[in-house]
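Query form — protein DUF4252 domain-containing protein

QUESTION: What is the three-dimensional structure of this chain?
INPUT:
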Amino acid sequence: MMKKSLFVLILIGGWVIPSWAQNNKEFEQLCKKYQDSENVGSFGMDGLGCLLASWFIGKEANDINALIRQCSSFRILSCSGEESKMLCKDIRAFVRASKLEELISVQEDGSEVKLYMQTVKNKVHQVFVSVVDEEQKVVFLQVKGKFDLAAIQKLAKTSQISYLCH
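ANSWER: The structure tokens for DUF4252 domain-containing protein are given below.
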């Protein structure tokens, strides 16, 4: 019985872990796929880059610093022109494969902004933002880490107060 259980566990682990790792790298692969295109720009940072970036944010922004230190990676991909249609198609496939939950979708003046999130046990593991303009301009942002929902809510409240004060 023990051997069967171990075999099943190895079989499941061999299927789940590679599929999780593949979904984990898929956006990075899209960035690489389009990196040589003329109308595409890409920027990314790993966890160390995020930590270094947090050093340049003032000490008064403790909430922002706390979230940045929880980042494991940050990546932006932007595109304009005809290639944006193909990129949008690839992004839709990425969102489905990653099982991201759509939190909000806003359409205004020919632009559409969507916010997606992936949570595991009350921790946000991925935030993905999609901005698509009808003039064939698109921007995609992926932030990964292990973020506490309470910290995100606190930052949102702080941002609202800061925004209202200006």
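ADDITIONAL NOTE: The radius of gyration is 19 Å.
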